[in-house]
Design a protein that fits this description.
five-stranded antiparallel beta sheet, alpha+beta
């Protein structure tokens, strides 16, 4: 697992699991809450505890750092995209 963004705005951690599979996606955590986010197009799945306000903040955070996130996804395994 690689933490791409650590304790960012509102305390979210954004991670990529190194043995994952496509399509490109990340997992966002804060405390006991988590959500899987497909990146293109951005879509939430497997939400465990985040409310709509928090999901909006997660979307904004990911949009602000999308170039870095995609770069890390590609670095870990270009065949995943």
């Amino acid at each position: 697992m690689v933490t791409v963004l650590y304790r960012q705005r509102h305390g979210f951690d954004v991670r990529i699991f190194t043995r994952e599979h496509g399509p490109a996606h990340v997992h966002v955590f804060r405390g006991e809450k988590s959500v899987k986010v497909n990146l293109n197009p951005m879509r939430f799945s497997e939400n465990k505890g985040f409310n709509n306000r928090e999901l909006k903040r997660i979307r904004e955070l990911l949009n602000d750092h999308m170039a870095l996130i995609i770069s890390e996804w590609d670095r870990l395994d270009p065949e995943k995209r």
